[in-house]
Amino acid sequence: MFTKAWRRWAAVVMVAGICLAVVASSGLRAENEKEKEEEEASMPGVIGGLGIAYLFETQQSLGMLGDAKAKGVYDTETATSLVKQTIGLSANVAKQLEALADSEKLEEADAKVVREFAAISLMLKEQGETLEKFWKKSDAKTAKHWDKLREETRKRILAIVGGGEEKADDDKTEKEE
């Protein structure tokens, strides 16, 4: 049915198609590897951005909960429930960040920053626990501990974003003026 010339032509076209597919797939593989490298390179930036946002928002949330409870916006039961949620999230985030830092997915410098995020997350957990304790037993010692934790946490967050303690002190001075 097919002539010998036709079969040869079909074989040449098939071989050319296979060669073209191999060349194209190797080019795609190279592009995919490049995209994968770029994606992996951006991972620390994404983690850093989300981490800083989480730390700021959690500290702000705890402060607003404390203020809202003090002004009667929330009753003790509601405020305690909201703080317990924050405490639970902070503990979970710290655990996940430690696991990420211990994995081999990050370079050592990035892992160090992620460990600092985890440590600050645990400080935020402690802030929530201290706030809850203060609501149960309002005393000067607990209030002082709360204030100290808030200030230490704020300084550590600012140190990560590059402001350091000097920046934290400048902010405090501006507020006092």
User: Termini, distance in Å?
Assistant: 98 Å
Structural domains: how many: 1
Q: Report the order of strands and helices.
A: HHHHH
Average pLDDT figure: 79
Major sheet details: none
Helix amount, in percent? Answer: over 70%
CA-based gyration radius: 28 Å
Structural class: mainly alpha
Which percent range describes the beta-strand content? under 5%
> How many beta-strand runs?
0
Shape: elongated
Count the DSSP helices.
5
How would you characterize this protein structure?
The chain has 177 residues and is an all-alpha fold. Helix content is 89%, strand content 0%. It has one domain (45-176). It has helices at 4-70, 76-102, 108-136, 140-161, 164-176. The longest helix is centred in the N-terminal third of the chain and has 67 residues, at 4-70. The protein is elongated, with a radius of gyration of 28 Å. Residues 165-177 have low confidence and may be disordered.
Present the secondary structure layout.
Elements: H1 4-70, H2 76-102, H3 108-136, H4 140-161, H5 164-176
Summarize the structure.
By secondary structure, the protein is mostly helical.
What would the keywords be for this entry?
0% strand, mainly alpha, 177 residues
